[in-house]
Amino acid sequence: MRPRVEEVRIQGLGVIDEAVLELSPGFNVVTGETGAGKTMVVTGLGLLFGGRADPARVRPGADKATVEGTLVVESKGRVAQQVEDVGGEVEDGELIISRTVSAEGRSRAWLGGRTVPVGTLTYLADDLVAVHGQMDQQRLLQPARQRAALDRYAGEDLVKPLRAYTQTYKRHKQVAALLEELTTKARERAQEADMLRFGLEEIEKVDPKRGEDVELRAEEERLSHADALRGAATTAHTALLGDPMDPSGDTRDVISLLGEARTAVEAVRDFDPQLAGVADRLAEAGYLISDVATDLAAYAESIEADPARLAAVQERRSILSGLVRKYAEDSAGVLAWAQAAAARLTELEGDDDRIGELTREHEELSARLGELAAELTKVRSAAAERFGAAVTEELTALAMPHARVVVQLSEAAEYGPEGVDEVELRMSAHPAAPPLPLNKGASGGELSRVMLAIEVVFAGADPVPTFVFDEVDAGVGGKAAVEIGRRLARLARTAQVIVVTHLPQVAAFADQHLVVEKAGDGSVVRSGVVTLDHDGRVRELSRMLAGLEDSELGRAHAEELLGMAAADR
C-alpha cells in the first residue's frame, strides 16, 4: 500500500473560512470560480508539508490559519518509522499532520501528535508528495533527484552494474582511508612503536612474575620485624611450657597449670559423668597447647634478621613498583600490558608490507571502479536518450510542439556512491534555443506541463505517492486540454493526483471532483469545499464551459466530456 492523503482540513487560510477536502486514491480535481480560493487548497497542502509560512495568507480577522491532514500509511513502513523516530505515532495506519500560521508570522507543526520543527515536515515530504505549481517546482529540480529518477527509469539494465559499482566503491573508500591513515600518520605510528619497544624491553629486563609483588610485600614485612616476631614467639612459648633455663623451676607455665587441673578432676571423674567430660576436654587442651608451643619454638628458630635479604627484597619491590606506576595496577596487569603491546608492535612493524598490499589493491579497485562507472554512464546515456524522446513526444501533445527535453550527463570531479555521472534535465523552448535547466527554459505554466510530461514518463518508476499540480493547464485549451486530462488520469493509475484547474476538459477525467464555493455577505467572502456527485459535476462542467450552470447546450457538452473521459479511462 502506497501512502496517500485522505483528508485535509483548512481554517482561516486566505478566503477559506473553513473547508474539508475528502480525497480519493486516484485523480482528484479542484475547480471553482475565480477568487473562490482554489489556489488556497494547494497553499494548504504546501503548508502541511513544510512550505514557507506567509502571515499575509491568514484570513483577515482570524488569529491564525490552520491546516490539518490525515494520511493513510503503512503501520510498519518507512514513513511510520520516520514518524516514530521523532516521537510521533501512527494509529491504525493513519498519520495526522498539522500546521498553524499566526497573523504575526509564528508557525508551529505537529507530526503524529508530537510538536516538531517545520523542517521535519519538509524532510518527510520528500517521500510523500511532489508539488508542481506556478511558483513551486521543487522536487525534480534537485540534481540528486534527477539522477535517482533517471536510474529508476533505466530499470533492470542498471540494477546489476550499479550494485557491483556500489560494492567496489565502498571497498575503494575503505582501502583509501586505511592508506591515508598509514601514510599520513607514519611519524605517529613510528613513535608509538618506539614507545612500545622501550616498554617491552624494560619489562623483559625486570622479568616480573604473576603475584610476585604480593609475595615480596609479605616477605618485607616479615624481615623488617624479625626481632619482634622472634621475641613474641619465644615469650609465648615460655608462657605455655616454661623456661627450661630457669634454675629455680618456679615458673608457673600453662602446661603445668593445665596438668594440675587435670589431676584434680581425674581423681573424682568416676563420680559424675559431667565432670568426666570436663577432664577429657582438659586433656585435649593440654595436647593442643603442647602442639602450639612446639610450633612457636620452630617459628622462633626460623626467624632470622637478614639485612642483606631485606635490602634485596626492598630493591626488587622498588623496581616492580616502577613498572606498576607506568603500565598497570599490579604485576599481573604489567604482564597483560606486555602481551597487548607485543601484539600491537607486530601490527605496527608490518605497516610497510601492509602499505604495499593496500596500494596494489587500491590500484586494482581504481581500475575496476573506472570500468564500472563507464558501464553506468553507458546505461544512463541510453536511458537518457529514451527518456528525452518520450518527454518531448508528450510535450507535443501538451501544446508545446517545438519544445525539446534532453538529459545532460556530465562527469563529476570525483567518483561518488552512484558513479561519476551528474544528471541534469534541460529544455529548449524551440529548435533554435539552447537547452537550459528546467527552471530557466520554461515559464511557470510551461514548467507545470513539462513536469506533467516528465512525471507521466516516470510513472511507475517514481516512488512519490502523491502529485499536486496547480494550473498545469495554464495557457492551453481544446485538444491540448484533453491530452492534459488524459495524462493526469494515466498518472493517477499508479499514484494519487490532486489538480487545481479551470478547464472542464481536464476536470472531466477526475475520479473525484471537488468544487470551491464562495458566498458573499458584504465585504466578507467565505469559501468552502464540496464533493460533487454526477449531477453536480455536470452543472460545474457546464458552468466552466458556458458560464451557465443550467445551459442545456453546456450540460450536453458536459455529459459528452464525462462520457469521453470515462471511455478513455
Automatic annotation (TrEMBL):
The keyword Magnesium does not apply. Keywords: ATP-binding, DNA damage, DNA repair, Nucleotide-binding. The keyword Nucleotide-binding applies. Residues 6-518 form the RecF/RecN/SMC N-terminal domain. Gene3D superfamilies: P-loop containing nucleotide triphosphate hydrolases (3.40.50.300). It comes from the Bacteria. It holds the Pfam family SMC_N. InterPro entries: DNA_recomb/repair_RecN (IPR004604), P-loop_NTPase (IPR027417), RecF/RecN/SMC_N (IPR003395). Coiled coil: none annotated. May be involved in recombinational repair of damaged DNA. Belongs to the RecN family. NCBIfam families: recN. This is DNA repair protein RecN. It comes from Nonomuraea recticatena.
